[in-house]
Amino acid sequence: MYARARIWQLTEMIKSGHSMPQNKSIDRREFMKRAATAGAAAVTAPAAMAEAQAGAAQPVIPSPQTTAPATPVVEVLTEGPSGSDFMVDVIKSLGVPYVCANPGSSFRGLQESIINYSGNASPEFITCCHEESSVAMAHGYAKIEGKPLVVLAHGTVGLQHASMAIYNAYCDRVPVYIILGNTLDATMRYPGVEWVHSVQDAAAMVRDFSKWDDAPVSLQHFAESGVRAYAIAMTPPAGPVVLVADTELQERPLPEHVQLRVPKLTLAAPPQGDSGAVAEAARLLVAATNPVFVADRLARTPAGMAHLIELAELLQASVVSSQPNTAPPIVAGRMNFPSRHPLNQTLRSAGAIADADVVVGLEIANFFGAVHTFRDQVERSSRPLTQAATKLITITAGDLNVKANYQTFQRYSEVDLAISGDAEATMPSLIEAVKRLMTDDRRRVFQERGATLAALSAAGRDRARADATFAWDAVPISTGRLAAEVWAQIRLEDWSLVNGGLSGWPARLWNFDKHYQFIGTSGGSGIGYGAPSAVGAALANRKHGRLSVSLQNDGDLMYGPGVLWTAAHHHIPLLTIMNNNRAYHEEVMHLQRMANRRQRGIDRANIGTAIDDPGIDFAKLAEGLGVHAEGPISDPKNLAPAIKRAIAVVKGGEPALVDVVTQPR
Amino acid sequence: MKTHTVRASLGHAIILALLSGVSVLALQTPSAQAPAAAAAAGNSDNGKRIFVKYGCAECHGREGQGSPLAGPRIGPNPLALTAFVRYIRTPTGQMPPYTEKVVTDRELTDMRAFLQSRLRPPAAAQAVVSPD
Which stretches in chain A have pLDDT values below 50? Predict the structure, then answer.
């Protein structure tokens, strides 16, 4: 497609009597190309050329032999403003503050423009040690700031490294703006590595799990697709987009007589649910005895959380919401609702849903899972969790971006009312519709219901606090103790949990009441997301002065520990608490299940799952990467002082890590 | 009752079962003050060893303290021995079945003795857990 377009462009220029703007003063590449072609022609017999081309159409481009200078020309070795300068102008117009990348030759032009033409400011180049880290950092950043970062990567090897992280962002509906370097013109590729780093259709590899892509063939095309890509990435359901920056476009001088312009960016208003459907949902909610909201990726912004609080309080309805390590199917998507709100019934979610007569799913992909229970024995089975007469309603923008290959859409759910539209954007109209139907009688009923729910919620939290105290002095340290000790140190800070759920204890012990205090998990459940996304989120939190906290799993960090160096290099303050439980414990449990089922012995599930012998010294690892570190800590009495010291380092603007040897779960 | 077959992940399945209340308290006596007389004899030290070796600690913690995500608390007040063994052999929730081929009744008795010997939380813990 690119080649056809390029030929069309050349043909059109010649037809209209125009030469390519770049040719008015022969640029470096064109000069070299012509010289090489002329050299080749000199050793090719004219007769042989004539025979080879017999019957072919007359060339539309003048032969190099007729255009090459007859006398030696001084080789042009320098150039002025280049295509990648304009590309950076496009990026700057989008307000992107950072570019995350592991450096690569296919975007050397862009990188040079960023650091010199743009002065390495807005965007600033963030040095990453792996493309998966680059994308995951942008993922974490976007979940704090609500806006994408740019990621630069090779169109082949870089994208292959990045693909898992892109899948996570796609599943998690997070905007990430990926620019791939690629050399499409085969005659411009340096022999060898540039060939194996080149590809016909760079974005094809991730097209199944990205929202949009393009491979511009001109700078103006780049500008228009660049702005379009940003708008598409941000429109709910948000997602990653891919733009290919051809090396020729990057590295050629800016055309002298072509007016380039960066188009205006206008973000689309998020799609809202149909007004009639919203009115019907309001009618069902107001009439309901036990309505329940199940919120997953609802709150794209702080407004989403405020809307859900208003609606839940208006109805005094139960809310089941994603929290750190919330039980699936609520896959820990966003901070939608305060953890200690009296209407928060997440700790008794199954009971709340079972009692419901109306269940409203708010941006939950796995709604089927929310209203069914499962059993993983020899015969896997499920049964409805809800009563037969329970009305099921979904509001989601997920319906608006469904693809076929990757099964992210989950099992088909039989609902009574399906509203396609962004739930956060739909909430204000739903609130107004509910208000219109409210009566004094219903208000009285709602208040009684609210009191009951508040008591249930408080009892659940009390139980959780009591549960956390068991195995208090155990060695290795219990996850409940660790969560409690971290909370004791951060609770008076302006904190933000940017990674990890520590077996669900923070959701039970910590007071989450701000949108940025929990940013959800990976989306695609691809291990290796946690550490880099935490650094990205901490980068976003830095300007707000927040204390970013990462409850870091050991197996996850080992996918890409180099991101700790990135945090140190760029002075990104992040408190990392290692949940060093020395195994892939989810997989241990899978193996145990298989072994038990087959009755073959259950004491070898550590084979292939344990991360010990030798145990990893994460403090030494972190110190080697330039990060303040302490540990390993096995005695719980040593936790509080170590965490305090680490917080002091982080509040000084640097990352710190505390390695804690913990129990499996 | 089985109505549909599904392919959900183990972790999801376990967690959902816990949420649904299928087995959260199934291995724990209702009262935290169950009489010690209910305990059967057993080798607590051996029980501690096999509790880890056989992977029970994966879900229930090394002290049987439980985990919100994986398995309920089962110490220091486990079910009476008969019910304890019966549930482990034929669990009704998400827990995989442990047959006599993989763990003997004697070992389960030891394991239960270990769980019963677990300490209750120190008073100081509550202050850390509930600072506000």
Answer: 1-29, 31-57, 59, 64
Predicted local confidence at residue A69, as pLDDT: 59
Q: Residue A256: its pLDDT value, please?
A: 86
C-alpha A293/C-alpha A349 separation (Å) is 10
For residue A388, CA distances in Å to A383, A391, B2 come to 11, 9, 16
- Rounded to whole angstroms, the Cα distance separating A426 from A316 reads 19
A373 contacts on B by Cβ (under 8 Å): 16-17, 19-20, 22
* Contact status, residue A290 vs residue A441, Cβ threshold 8 Å: no
Residue A477 Cα, gap to closest chain B Cα (Å)? 10
- Polymer length of chain B: 132
* Token duo for residue B111: 């394991």
B36: exposed, middle or buried (Cβ count in 10 Å: 0-12, 13-18, 19+): exposed
CB–CB contact B6 A380 (8 Å): yes
Give pLDDT, residue A70: 64
Q: What are phi and psi of A656, to 5 degrees?
A: -145, 150
Residues with Cβ within 8 Å of residue A546, at least 6 apart in sequence: A494, A495, A496, A516
Cβ-based burial of A62 (10 A; exposed 0-12, middle 13-18, buried ≥19)? exposed
Rounded CA gap, A360 and A261, in Å?
Answer: 46
Predicted pLDDT of residue B111: 97
CA atoms within 13 A on the CB side of A187: 8
ipTM: 0.81
Among candidate residues A309, A273, A284, the one with its CA nearest the CA of residue A395: A273
Quote the tokens at residue A90.
């496009």
Rounded Cα gap, residues A400 and A268, in angstroms: 14
Interface contact B16-A472, CB threshold 8 A: no
**Tally of CB atoms within 10 A around A77:** 7
Q: Which residues of A touch B22 (CB under 8 A)?
A: 373
Residue A531 to residue A550: CA distance in whole angstroms? 8
Contacts of A491 in chain B (CB under 8 A): 131-132
Q: Tell me how far apart the alpha carbons of residues A420 and A337 are, in angstroms, rounded to a whole number.
A: 22
Rounded to 10 degrees, the C-alpha dihedral A591/A592/A594/A600 comes to 110
- A213 strand-pairing partners: A242
Residue A630 sits at φ, ψ, to 5 deg, of: -135, 150
Does this model's pTM top 0.95? My answer is no
A contact test, residue of B7, B14, B18, B20 with most A CBs within 10 A: B20
pLDDT (tens digit per residue) in B70-80: 899 999 999 99
Q: Could you give phi then psi for residue A59, rounded to 5 degrees?
A: -65, 140
Q: Report CB contact under 8 Å: A369, B102.
A: no
What are the DSSP E strand ranges found in A230-309? 241-246, 291-295
Q: What integer pLDDT is reported at residue A199 of this predicted model?
A: 97
Q: For A463-491, how does the pLDDT look when each residue is reduced to its tens digit (9 = 90+)?
A: 999 999 999 999 999 999 999 999 999 99
Residue at A164: amino acid letter: M
- Match 């970013």 to its residue by tokens: A548
Q: Residue A452: how many CA atoms within 13 Å on its side-chain side? A: 13
CB A495 within 8 A of CB A517: yes
pLDDT category at B130 given cuts 50, 70, 90 is confident
Whether residue A303 contacts residue A334, with contact meaning beta carbons closer than 8 Å, is answered with no
Q: To 10 degrees, what angle do helices A562-569 and A131-145 make?
A: 60
Residue of higher predicted confidence among B9 and A85: A85
Pull the structure tokens for residue A181: 């370097």
**Judging by DSSP bridges, how do beta strands A380-384 and A372-376 pair with one another?**
antiparallel
A585-598 and B10-19 helices, crossing angle to 10°:
90
Bridge partners of A558, per DSSP, are: none
Tell me the chain A residues in contact with residue B9 when contact means C-beta distances shorter than 8 Å.
Answer: 328
